[in-house]
Design goal:
Radius of gyration: 27 Å
Oligomer: single chain
Bound molecules: arginine
Shape: globular
Number of strands: 23
Strand content: 15-25%
Number of helices: 26
Length: 721
Amino acid sequence: MNKIKIYLSAIILLITCSVRADEGMWLLQLMQEQHSIDMMKKQGLKLDVLDLYNPNGVSLKDAVGIFGGGCTGEIISPEGLILTNHHCGYGFIQQHSSVEHDYLTDGFWATSKDKELPTPGLKFTFIERIEDITDLVNKKIADKEITETESLSREFWGKLAAELHNQSDLKEKKGISPQVLPFYAGNKFYIIYRKVYSDVRMVAAPPSSIGKFGGETDNWMWPRHTGDFSMFRIYADANGEPADYDASNTPLKTTKHLPISIKGINEGDYAMIMGFPGSTSRYLTVSEVKQRMEASNAPRIQIRGARQEVLKAAMNASDKTRIQYANKYAGSSNYWKNSIGMNKAIVDNNVLGTKTEQEAAFLKFAREQNNEAYQKVVDQIDQAITSTQPLTYQRTCLSEAFLMGIEFRTSHLLLDKMKEAIEEKNTAGIDSLKDSFQKVFDRIHNKDYDHEVDRQVAKTLFPLYAEMVPSSEHPAIYTVIAQEYKGDYNKFIDDMYDNSIMSNQENLDKFLKKPTVKALDNDLSAQYSKSTLDKFQELNKLMTPLQDELDILHKTYIRGLGDMKLPVPSYPDANFTLRLTYGNIKSYSPRDGVHYKYYTTAKGVLEKEDPTNREFNVPAKLKELIENADYGQYALPNGEMPLCFLTNNDITGGNSGSPVLNENGELIGCAFDGNWESLSGDINFDNNMQRCINLDIRYVLFILEKLGGCGHLINEMTIVQ
Ligand code: ARG
């Protein structure tokens, strides 16, 4: 009897496990309709749908927002305190840093509100309202007001967003920014009204030896010991509305903040994450996955790798350069390593095999349905990809080398205007353009730019690009190099970096003193910039019709996949809109004979410590705290300090900083990374392998209190014990 019971429950467990949707970046507005809320409850969620998302009231979503331009942050006190990742705050921490105040190295702790640092350029964005406008868009297509292709263009989305905003009751409200976006490749459309706060101040950041512990070596890897968090605060005007920085602004009184649970976590516990995943491509064909590997990832790996070597050498040689290039280096390296891992994981996890099976199943379904469009669509995508492949490859090389790699460039448009003014003898025009020249110069030679470092980057990337791309496709400047410099890249680059108008202040002053058409015509930096831009536009012109065709084909393919899956609901690809993923705290086995525990502890920090390697330095104070096991109320029952943990939630870039919540909606962690073995996850989610790497909230509070001396911040929070 007992045996049967165990047997039965094992079967039930198996069934629930196999249907359990760890995969899925669900739309909050569809949780009811798609039954994801029922699945969540089955897994242990104690909240109701309206607690998570309430279009007419306050809910969890009001405590989550977009941090800066590409991360997620959450509100953890009634006074607008934001928690996000250290790597999300990184650029802003760097913005405040100099050799004298090196907050990247030493950390930053505002011990009172008046010490919180205004951070120009930093914004925090809430989601005010989401409306389904699919019928409206479809009607416009049916009425021939727009074509289907136009409905998939940014231009149309922007226009429609402005139009609808203008008619809405939100029109007069401060800080509202409307956004129209397609979902399911354009089978659905929503308008999202976002509310943008622009006075956000820096509150707390641990030293990089905590916040970025493990550096690039541990990035995208488990087991992990990175205290990847930082804190900021939203300030608002007297009415609590968004306002630009003003000394009189006060901390935003938030309608919703996340309570924080320090009760502890166990394997199998319910866990969900709300945030803004940037981009996934879960519905690609085999041909498109191959294109991603060969035309995007491979050239990116090669070009970034070469640039990063130059930057690393320069950063190691000088503290000033290290601070200047810290954010650029991390930004480049993050998706460089991701691209390496993705190409490897696509092979290791047999993604092409899975996709091939999916295509075969789809074809079978299409034949059964007698649906001609479905039957043809994959072949049509394959054909379009054959045409785009070389263009995509070239565009990746061009943008990685010249638009994102080498920084020194001078817009020819400004020079052309000056030329015109000189030719027309328009002295007033010339004078006002002089100001613009100085402004452009200051923008190029900003505090994080080193002309000599950039010159070395150019000397590496010019010849590398030439090797990678057929010479018939090179930008016109390569002809100049061949003819006038006998193909000597270094000679050309030195000439450009020494003798262009924007090369240095001396050259600029000399030019401004006596602006001549000849000097403008001879400017190498402008010639180079124009030639790369021309090439980019030429490629785009060739790509646009093919891309338009692909957009329509995807719309058909994804509609078909949706039809095939019914009644099982599916979720749309990530597009940096608010999503929810639910699952569990979970360990994994990356390969034969290896099992990874679901959490790490502070002990591991000392195991990894390496005083000779900057990435693995441990601050003396932290070492002392760990050696004395001085963890206060945050320790595990066995006296150890929890650090990071794993869940099987479905996240990607953009989710960085997202809240990890337990079954009561209490904060247990902050998501910050994915694991190496499943970097193919943006293309295909693998239930056994894909894990989300999170920072345990108890480690955040421990660092804040014991190392940062910021007990006052903890007092603001709602702690559940
Ligand atoms: N891989 C993380 C993400 O994309 C970023 C980690 C940043 N840390 C670093 N060492 N670069 O969210």
